[in-house]
Amino acid sequence: MKPREKEFCRLMTVVADPIKAARKAGYKHPERAWSELSAREEIVSEIRRRCENIRSVYEHTAICGLYKLAYGGVSDALTLLYRDDLSEEDLRMLDLRNVSEIKRTDKGIEVKFCDRIKAIDKLQELLGSGAEHGNGSGLLDAILSSAEALGSHSGSETDDL
Q1: In the 8-state DSSP scheme, what is residue 94?
Q2: In this predicted structure, what is the pLDDT of residue 146?
Q3: What separation, in Å, do the N-terminal and C-terminal C-alpha atoms of the chain show?
């Protein structure tokens, strides 16, 4: 695979727009380039690989975030209730990821926390369904559908596109 083709594959996973990806990769005729590139199995495989890697990163990030919601501490949020002398810098350093709502009332500050049980349930659902994912991703399915709609031509050279 040529460097410009690799760049096209990288851009497809970033911008999710085949014409824009082809244009940014340096093809003079992005519509035609997309049509021809998408017909090549090595290009489709590279885009699929990259999409799966991104999906894996997003899933890992979601799992870590849910874990922090489910099992994270609330001491920084409680600091808001009991300290009136916090500077702007102090406030920025507080970990408030478990807080879903903060409001000031006539009685003081009201803090609502995220539902830990829901976070645990969702975490269990994600961890339990890891093996159930299909081979394709929504982005890849859309890319392949677009290629079919454009009437791709296999084996065409894309250097001059």
Answers
A1: S
A2: 58
A3: 16
Query: What pTM does this model have?
Result: 0.52
Q: Which of these, 40, 43, 51, lies nearest to 6 by C-alpha position?
A: 43
Radius of gyration for the chain, computed over Cα atoms and rounded to the nearest angstrom: 24
Rounded Cα–Cα distance for residues 50 and 85 (Å): 48
Q: What is the pLDDT of residues 54-107, one digit of tens each?
A: 888 888 888 888 888 888 888 888 888 888 888 999 989 988 888 889 888 888
Q: What residues contact residue 114 under an 8 Å CB cut-off, 6+ apart? A: 69, 98, 99, 100
Residue pair 14/120 in contact by the 8 Å Cβ criterion? no
Q: Which residues contact 136 (CB under 8 A, 6 or more apart)?
A: 48
Closest CA to 109 of 77, 73, 72, 76: 77
d(CA 42, CA 156): 13
